[in-house]
Design a protein that fits this description.
The chain has a 6-stranded mixed sheet, sandwiched between helices. It starts with 6 loop residues before the first strand and ends with a helix. With about 270 residues, the chain is an alpha/beta fold. It has 10 helices and 12 strands. The chain has one domain: 3-Layer(aba) Sandwich (Rossmann fold). Strand 9 and strand 10 form a beta hairpin.
């Protein structure tokens, strides 16, 4: 695999509690790409992301960031290069929006160093970028779930990371906030690796999709080449019809699901 890639994962293995969770995962991510990670529950999506941001250890050279083995990087250097937004990001709900976003400065500051004017301006800009400038003095607990995720994205922006990792960041949000949040991330021109449950949302937002099943990478490509009826049947165990999205028929597939009981009753009623 090319060392010119921002992220290179090569033959990644991960064994947890005696079980092989990831088995020989290999892919690359280029600067500026937005890659979606799909798969059923237990496929290994979160484990893969945790290996990349080094929550779990991996073999030397299995994961390289800008050509550097992440196992050789100091924790602070890794935190400067990779920002993480989780489904429910751990935060003190008694902090204000401004205070949470300013936490993104910590990896770049010495323990005794306070933020200078440039760093404070970066915090203000990130808050404005996510549309929360008028709410920066509110407590995190006073915001909706979608707004809280915007705060955590702003914190990640302040880090100025080379790679943003998002682990199912929209799973507990209603559809309006899911779309708004992903459109926001898409507009920020970041390099992103994010896991999804919503196949149609992933297909519309991502440049490429990776599909995991049973700890193995079973598909890697553009949404239109990856999202097929046969793959969805084999990996997710669902019956679908894959068409094209009217907004972007050339690039976006659109998944329609069949619901067996209702479908069968409908067919009987017609006959």
């Amino acid at each position: 695999m090319s060392d010119h890639s921002l992220l290179t994962v090569e033959q990644l293995l991960c064994r947890l509690q005696g079980r092989q969770v990831l088995d020989g995962i290999s892919f690359t991510l280029q600067q500026g790409e937005f890659i979606g990670l799909l798969g059923p529950n237990g496929a290994g999506k979160s484990t893969l992301l945790r290996c990349i941001y080094r929550y779990y250890a991996s073999a030397k050279d299995a994961i390289r960031l800008n050509g550097r083995c992440i196992q050789d990087m100091a924790p602070r250097a890794l935190a400067q290069d990779i920002a993480v937004v989780l489904q429910q990001a751990p935060s003190d709900m008694s902090l204000t929006v401004l205070e949470v976003v300013a936490l993104g400065l910590l990896p770049a500051l010495a323990p005794w160093q306070g933020p200078g004017a440039e760093a404070q301006a970066r915090v203000q800009q990130a808050i404005a970028d996510v549309g929360l400038a008028t709410q920066q003095h509110k407590l995190l607990a006073q915001l909706s779930g979608g707004e809280q995720q915007r705060v955590h994205i702003a914190r990640a922006l302040v880090q100025q990371p080379k790679l943003l990792i998002m682990d199912e960041p929209t799973s507990h949000l209603d559809i309006k906030y899911q779309i708004e949040l992903m459109e926001l991330v898409r507009s920020l021109n970041l390099t992103v690796l994010a896991s999804f449950h919503d196949l149609n949302l992933a297909a519309a937002m991502c440049d490429k999709l990776l599909v995991l099943n049973g700890g193995q990478l079973v598909a890697n490509g553009t949404p239109k080449t990856v999202i097929t009826e046969s793959l969805l049947s084999e990996v997710f165990g669902v019956c679908t019809q894959v068409g094209v999205h009217p907004q972007n028929p050339e690039h976006w597939p659109l998944v329609h699901y069949y619901y067996s009981d209702r479908h069968n009753r409908y067919e009987r009623q017609k006959s």
